[in-house]
Design goal:
This protein has 206 residues and is mostly helical. The chain is built from eight helices and no strands. Helix 2 runs parallel beside helix 8 and helix 3 packs antiparallel against helix 4. The longest helix is centred in the C-terminal third of the chain and has 29 residues.
């Protein structure tokens, strides 16, 4: 236990300013998402751009691709939320049966795609991933969650938290303690986010 604590302290001391920047932006993004504030997207775009560089550096390639996807989906979500100035904003809602099929398909297909990709990365250009199964799982479930978040579907919190749950130990293992703590924070906030959004939907159904 003592050695683990020392290791954690050493990792914190080695944390770069870029990691701190990504963490601060990540916290801002999730708090804005919980309050249903559109400014979550600018914060997310900048934070994930920084994260791509950091994750590539430690060999978490699927999560790097995931963060690239976050940037694309953040732009899409920003546009989708705004729509037109004279139109009402997109309301929070439960996902439909068709959206359930799509989100599950994103998880399954994404997991297989990332696993195959990570197992076959050319060694000439990349260091082979030593956690391909978990890296692929973390990324595929987050893909589905981000798609649902962009469409303001309550279930986005469920998919994102499955990703968070598996990401926390992997990030510690990869010596990214601040990212691990950020993910733990996101896990807790996502729980509250789910119930906040659920309450809003139920109040409109009465």
């Amino acid at each position: 236990m003592y050695s683990l604590l020392n290791l954690f302290i050493e990792q914190i001391q080695e944390t770069t300013w870029l990691q701190w920047l990504a963490v601060i932006l990540g916290i801002a993004e999730v708090l804005l998402a919980r309050s249903n504030n559109i400014w979550l997207y600018p914060a997310g775009i900048l934070g994930t751009s920084v994260a791509i560089y950091l994750l590539l550096d430690v060999g978490l390639y699927a999560e790097s691709i995931l963060n690239g996807y976050y940037v694309v989906m953040s732009i899409y979500g920003w546009i989708y939320w705004i729509k037109k100035k004279n139109e009402p904003p997109v309301k929070i809602s439960w996902q439909t049966q068709n959206e359930w099929v799509i989100s599950i398909a994103i998880c399954v297909v994404g997991w297989v795609f990332f696993y195959v990709l990570l197992k076959n990365l050319p060694a000439k250009y990349f260091t082979p991933s030593n956690v391909p199964v978990w890296d692929a799982l973390i990324s595929s479930t987050a893909w589905a969650g981000m798609w649902l978040l962009a469409r303001r579907k309550i279930e986005n919190w469920v998919f994102l938290n499955i990703s968070n749950l598996f990401a926390i130990p992997i990030l510690f293992y990869k010596h990214l303690p601040m990212f691990a703590l950020l993910t733990l924070f996101l896990f807790v906030v996502a729980i509250f986010g789910y119930f906040d959004w659920r309450k809003k939907v139920l109040s409109t159904e009465l």
